From TrEMBL:
This is Putative SAS-like centriolar protein. InterPro entries: SAS-6_N, SAS-6_N_sf. It is found in: Cytoplasm, Cytoskeleton, Microtubule organizing center, Centrosome. Its main location: cytoplasm. It comes from Hamiltosporidium tvaerminnensis.
């Protein structure tokens, strides 16, 4: 028996309508020889054959510039058939010379990766093909028989296990039903007991509520009594303080009465002394009135003098301002005279030398030009 190293359906591109677009491919290796069959899926007795031995491979290697050895070529060939089945390569079968090409599509051009020459099978090839088919069928049949027997045994064992499980489950079910019935009965009795206990609990709760109300009322009364006691204690304390204050007030009143008596005596003595001194006070009042009149006259005179001083100060300020103005005028006149003298000297130098006045006369003239003395 020859086991295929590749089997699967591949897409075929061919212009001949007799060749189908999808064919089954079987690759079988016997020793140093490879057989490739392209089988029609509709008619298994129609196929194309390509056989490559180790010797033929070297011719193919030289013709197509293959760089690998025979073993690696076989692996690459199987890879390309897998790529064909996945649609990564295109298989093209020429109807003229029955050449099969592995094409790789590219943006620029299609690249032929490998060319294999197929032929139509002869009688020996058919015999080998039929023997392979028969052996495969026999092996498949043996496998199916073994699988069938194994499945029958598994089914029988499964049936036995299922029956045992059913028995076990039925027993469990009956036991569970009995338990459920017993639990129902126990549940009924427990429900009755629970209802009775709930009634008792409700009674106890009502008693508790009443007791809480009584407790609250008692606490309220106790609080009232406690507040009343506190108030009574405060009143007693206040009464004691009032008694103490009354006693202290009485003692203070007594001391005040004694002081008042002493003061009354002293007042009587003071009144006597005042009556004696009233005559002296009258004379003093008259003297004081005289002094007041004199002081008023003096104040009037002082005011008049102050007004005169103010007026004199204002006059002095006015005179000082006039003096300043006169000095400014004098300085301006001196400058004008100097300018006139310089002009005169410049244009009339000779006449000035002969007819110029003496220095004493010039000084007398300059001295005669003076500002008026300020009024005294």
């Amino acid at each position: 028996m020859r086991e295929p190293i590749f089997t699967g359906k591949v897409a075929i591109s061919c212009l001949n309508e007799d060749i189908p677009s999808m064919m089954k491919c079987d690759v079988v290796r016997v020793d140093d020889k490879i057989e490739i069959r392209l089988i029609d899926t509709k008619d298994i007795f129609t196929f194309y054959l390509c056989s490559i031995s180790a010797g033929e491979f070297y011719i193919l290697k030289r013709e197509q510039d293959i760089r690998v050895d025979f073993e690696k070529f076989v692996r690459k060939l199987i890879e390309m058939f897998h790529m064909l089945s996945k649609g990564q390569l295109i298989g093209v079968l020429s109807r003229n010379n029955n050449k099969f090409m592995f094409l790789e599509k590219n943006e620029f051009r299609n690249i032929v990766r490998l060319e294999l020459k197929f032929c139509k099978p002869d009688e020996n090839h058919y015999k080998n093909y039929l023997s392979d088919l028969i052996t495969r069928l026999e092996t498949d049949n043996i496998k199916l028989i073994k699988d069938n027997s194994f499945l029958k045994e598994t089914v029988k064992s499964g049936d036995r296990e299922m029956k045992e499980r059913l028995k076990y489950l039925e027993e469990d079910y009956s036991n569970l039903q009995k338990k459920i019935e017993r639990l129902y009965k126990e549940n009924g009795s427990l429900n009755a007991e629970c209802n009775e206990k709930n009634r008792e609990i409700e009674k106890i709760n009502s008693k508790l509520i009443q007791s809480e109300k009584d407790k609250a009322s008692l606490e309220y009364e106790i609080e009232k009594k406690r507040i009343q006691e506190v108030k009574n204690e405060n009143l007693i304390y206040k009464l004691e303080e009032l008694d103490k204050n009354n006693k202290t007030m009485e003692s203070e009143i007594n001391t005040a009465n004694d002081i008042i008596k002493k003061l009354n005596l002293e007042l009587k003595e003071v009144k006597k002394n005042l009556n004696d001194k009233e005559g002296g006070y009258v004379n003093l009042k008259e003297d004081i009135n005289k002094y007041k009149k004199v002081s008023e006259d003096l104040n009037k005179k002082i005011k008049i003098l102050e007004e005169k001083l103010k007026n004199s100060k204002e006059e002095i300020k006015n005179k000082e301002n006039k003096i300043k103005n006169l000095e400014l005028e004098r300085n301006n006149l001196i400058k004008k005279l100097e300018n006139a003298q310089s002009v005169y000297n410049h244009f009339y130098k000779k006449n000035v030398e002969t007819d110029s006045p003496n220095d004493s006369d010039y000084e007398s003239v300059m001295s005669s030009i003076r500002p008026e003395s300020p009024p005294h």
